[in-house]
Design a protein that fits this description.
Length: about 240
């Protein structure tokens, strides 16, 4: 065999190895995606929820969108947690513990799935149930790492924060699998009579497995629209001063 023939064989062998490596890499990524979400850095982020084990049934949507109590509770707490939110924030280091505080150990927070588990297990939530509640909220899988929830979470152990809020008006604009929601939101603090008002711009996405009335929250942005009369005393005094 001449020199050209040997070179050609070596090139063909190298191409076969490259194809085999590419195939193995694709299979590996597919398997990781099946077990969690691939974040592009070689790590599998979170684990999928076993809906069958948790006996989760799909939500049946009404013909027209309505803001149910479960979803309203989810939006209220998120608006108290963040001025702006998108699902990328679920990857932040602080997020898991903050989520537990607002959604699982908060005496002011109430939704059907949480109440059901509390009644059945005397307030104790398993790691899987916590992961499911978080998935319901954001449509993202968050891995509650380490020993944080190995023995479960006592939902009665926490206490409510000093802030509270409620949606007093909303308009919904369905767009396929998503809903654009504009809401007027009122919030206050314990020990104060002053209430502030915010305009919330929210994008919801359908998630039939979500315990929040079949929706997850994709983004949320809030804008303070408090008038001086509705705000704190300092705001009102300053307005009167500039009026002369």
């Amino acid at each position: 065999m001449n020199r050209y023939g040997r070179v050609k064989e070596k090139v063909a062998a190298a191409m076969k190895k490259k194809k085999a490596f590419t195939f193995i890499l694709c299979v590996t990524i597919a398997l990781l995606s099946a077990c969690g979400k691939w974040n592009g850095s070689g790590e599998s982020v979170g684990k999928e929820v076993d809906f069958d084990a948790l006996q989760i049934e799909e939500y049946t949507y009404p013909k027209e969108f309505t803001l149910g109590q479960n979803l309203e509770s989810a939006i209220t707490e998120l608006a108290l947690m963040f001025d702006t939110f998108d699902t990328s924030q679920t990857k932040e280091e602080f997020y898991p513990e903050t989520f537990l505080t607002y959604y699982c150990q908060n005496s002011r927070m109430s939704f059907d799935y949480l109440e059901k588990i509390q009644e059945e297990n005397d307030g104790l939530l398993s790691k899987e149930q916590v992961a499911y509640i978080q998935y319901s909220l954001t449509n993202e899988f968050v891995d509650f790492k380490g020993s944080m929830l190995e023995e479960g979470l006592d939902s009665y152990e926490g206490s409510s924060g000093s802030g509270f809020g409620k949606i007093i008006f909303y308009e919904a604009e369905p767009e396929g699998e998503k809903v654009k929601l504009t809401a007027e939101f009122e919030r206050g603090m314990d020990g104060s009579e002053n209430m502030r008002r915010y305009e919330l711009d929210i994008v919801l996405m359908k998630n039939p497995k979500s315990c929040f009335d079949g929706y997850s929250i994709e983004t949320l942005a809030s804008k303070d629209i408090t008038t001086a009369e509705a705000g704190d005393g300092f705001d009102w005094c300053m307005k009167q001063f500039w009026k002369g």
